[in-house]
Amino acid sequence: MTEVTKLLQKWHASFQKGTDFDSWGQLVEAIDEYQILARQLQKEAQSQPNSSEFTEDQKKIIGKLATCLELRSAALQSTQNQEDFRLEDLKKLEPIIKNILTYNKEFPFDVQPVPLRKILAPGEEENLEFEEEEEDSVAGAGSPDSFPVRIPGTLLPRLPSEPGMTLLTIKIEKIGLKDAGQCIDPYITVSVKDLNGVDLTPVQDTPVASRKEDTYVHFNVDIEIQKHIEKLMQGIKNPLILKGRSCSC
């Protein structure tokens, strides 16, 4: 048995374990298993060509599988609706994860691999620093108004498209602040709540801001709201909360 075959069997066993927990209503255990597997898949999907046994096309499929696991995990954590990405949807991927080496059909869901994002296993601490391309490191050296590049916080991928349903993307380019220069490691928390303050979708944090310029803090990120507009309740409120550390604290 080859190492690749052993790896595929390991992934399939983890997938089955997660869906079993999911079907039994053991949601905490299911979320943990999905996140562990998603992290393993994304690590492989982002590996260098000379360190992977998979082709680039196969790694794209692996990345999409990781995205779907994230979507199901996010759906299970929603306080309102666990049907945005259903267990039945996830189970459609089982033949793919078993047969990645020979799979040559169109992926069943309109999703994309999440670029440059680290999925943490439960209980694992996130290391915010990651290596940049050498050219970028040189270009940004010595700039007092540039933040170190960080791995994204908890941004989630775009939901699969559905006929007649509308997706919402919030683009945050920059925020104007009087004391922008005093902000250290600022980020934005995005939540969608009903009139009683109950979260309707998973709360998401942006990466740490990319840079400061005069009275602006720059983010340049897209936040994918994890529920179609038609499924959201009437009268919601969408607060954008700026979080970070201030020199005056």
UniProtKB/TrEMBL annotation:
The keyword Amino-acid biosynthesis does not apply. InterPro entries: Aida_C, AIDA_N, AIDA_N_sf, C2_domain_sf. GO terms for molecular function: phosphatidylinositol binding. Pfam families: Aida_C2, Aida_N. It comes from the Eukaryota. One of its GO terms (cellular component) is membrane. Residues 156-249 form the C2 Aida-type domain. GO terms for biological process: determination of ventral identity. Keywords: Developmental protein. Belongs to the AIDA family. PANTHER family: AXIN INTERACTOR, DORSALIZATION-ASSOCIATED PROTEIN. This is Axin interactor, dorsalization-associated protein isoform X3.
